[in-house]
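User: Some background: our group keeps a shared notebook of sequences we're curious about, and every so often someone picks one and asks for a predicted structure to add to the entry. Today it's my turn. The entry only has the sequence so far, pasted here. Could you supply the structure so I can complete it?
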Amino acid sequence: MQSNHHKYLDTIIMKGKVSLNKGGLPLMARATQSNIKDFSKVAFTLPIKHTTHRSYDLITPELVKTIQFDGRVQIHTSKDFTAEYGYDLFMQIPNWIYSLSNMGNQLTTKQITGIKNTPIMLQIKITSLDSLLRSPSWSDFLTTKYDGVLNELSDAIWDYILEQHPFHEYGIESYEESNSAMEVDRFSITQLDMYRDIPGRYVKDILELVSVRGYYARKNMRIWNNAGLDTDGNSKVFQDSNGIEFRAGKKSSEIYKFYDKDLENANKHYQAIYTASDVDKKVFTEATKGDNTKLRYEVSLRRVASQRDAIKLKYGKVIGEYKNILLRDVLDNTIYSRVPQSILRDGLFNIFGGEIEKPLTDITIGENDMTDTDILQEYGTTGLKYLGVKYLMDKGQSNDQIWKYMVKRGGISYEVIRRLRKNMKDDGIIEKMNDGHQATMNILRDEYNRLSG
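Assistant: Of course. Here's the predicted structure to add to the notebook entry:
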């Protein structure tokens, strides 16, 4: 199999227009009603071999049929299927097609033709490319069922999807070419996420760094906080952040994110395994507040309807040709192999500006650095206030949160806070503190240099 130029890719969403043959009857027959929970009597199911600790089932429906209040019907895969096989399907059927499909053999030729000539959007989502390629289900497919040549990863993934969901048996065909088989090149990418994992840093470190050296306006930044259960079992939102994102507007086609990946995995893992209520509360809280030193930096490119297609624009700059980007382009086409790398690099530059391009700094304590003891010796009792601010920063509070916290919880007047902030700014205390900001910037500079190489 080619290449490692998919190593930066994570979530991939593809969409394409399809049509329903035979009045949609084969598709409706293979889909299971969403209110059916006992799958033992369901005719069309797929085995669950490797993720039973999440689903507590050994089988899952091949397709699920959910009827909305307005009569529309959603055909999709189950969450248990996605956890086992690494992708999901989704399509929305108009209510008039669903009504006609219930007529069965009484459908007229005109009605069947009308259904076939109606374009329906089919979405295929690979939730994590790396997780799919590492999954036991993928390995089982390659070793026992795949008989092709592993030169094109996109073709292998498409055959893997067809193994679980044979579209021709559902009466699903390509809309552009009547009576033609479904092919991977009929689907264009509408969302593409790429990432880098950065060990040893927290989201709070990035948040503080952005407040000191960031170039993005605050209105473009959104902060996500951890949610869990306290010792009494009540819902609780912790003050430390586990995710921040930057976007220009609600429907931005480019989104830049930092979040604590280990923490996210821990929550999913513990919730799946422990079911007893007295155990679940304890384990969930510990997982939420536990060590989460694996930071993920992620860029999400999207096609926003009637606005902007960031995927087409970013990839089109490489060869000067702006076209819909296919799975084959991002996985197998060597022309585009360095695009994810450059996008991740440019994202860091957009957030931190010229600071990210500066040489790595010697962060050993020198004459311009101050330890906690140095601060106390030079500033006396005022130094205690400085260390209090530093303590709150180390506990995960952002620069903005600290001052509100000191007023509301500490009972300190606004005037005292104003003077304290002014003194810390005038004396350059934040920069002098040996608080790891420079170390965080060095790590990001190192990542930037790696992505530039």
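Suggested note for the entry: The first strand starts at residue 9 and ends at 20. The two ends are 24 Å apart (CA to CA).
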